Amino acid sequence: DTVLTQSPALAVSPGERVTISCRASESVSTLMHWYQQKPGQQPTLLIYLASNLESGVPARFSGSGSGTDFTLTIDPVEADDTATYYCQQSWNDPLTFGSGTKLEIK
Amino acid sequence: QVQLQQSGAELVKPGSSVKISCKASGYTFTSYDMHWIKQQPGNGLEWIGWIYPGNGNTKYNQKFNGKATLTADKSSSTAYMQLSSLTSEDSAVYFCARSDGYNRFAYWGQGTLVTVSS
Q1: pLDDT exceeds 90 at position A7
Q2: CA angle B3, B32, B65 (to 5 degrees)
């Protein structure tokens, strides 16, 4: 299975820029997607195909990368961005998710 | 608007089975794959498999072969997942999610909590 590795946690202040990384154990081309999940809620899609902003998602969110290294950037961070962020690949079978990065806003 | 409404929480005994549902509305049910995803408490997300309601075709994560069975009822626009031979490891929140292009999930159900306990 394709393992997606994310750093477990980050803490930033409002107004700062934050980058969340996701490294794949093998190439996933650009078939990488990013989700935000708040406690007790379902995930919501932020970025699809590595760099495409999902409709309705603020332009503060952006994504980049290809192959094995991907990044989700939030700039500027707001208090409401407190959540866990997951990457998900759909290039290889089975589909897999990263373990999540918990973002705390100080 | 697209909505996926899942059935309520279940408390089930070890060794038993449970069937949870996901009722779709706001789009043509038979035109999109429906996926199921597991989330154990405090843990990440694990893909179980998908069903294409248009013809009933399914694909499973090998890990869930024999554990999960996906079905769909076109007449009621409802997808189902049955979990069998339940153990404590099956205690989790289970989500249905509609797949758009390239197996990205723009629409999710609210989740169904399954608790396996005697």
Answers
A1: no
A2: 100
What confidence tens digit (pLDDT) does each residue in A20-68 have? 999 999 999 999 999 999 999 999 999 999 999 999 999 999 999 999 9
Contact yes or no for B103/B42 (Cβ under 8 A): no
> Are B103 and A95 an interchain contact pair (Cβ–Cβ within 8 Å)?
yes
Q: Closest to A94 (Cβ–Cβ): which among B61, B102, B110?
A: B61
User: In B, which residues are within 8 Å of A35 by CB distance?
Assistant: 105
Q: Rounded CA gap, A35 and A87, in Å? A: 6
Q: Which amino acid is at A23?
A: R
Least CA distance to A54: which residue of chain B? B106
Contact B22, B108 (CB under 8 A): no
Cα–Cα distances (Å) from B72 to A34, B24, B69, in that order, read 28, 11, 10
The beta-carbon neighbor of A54 closest among B95, B103, B106 is: B106
Tokens of B86: 């339940």
Which residue has 């997942």 as its token pair?
A: B81
Q: What would you measure as the largest C-alpha separation in chain A, in angstroms?
A: 38
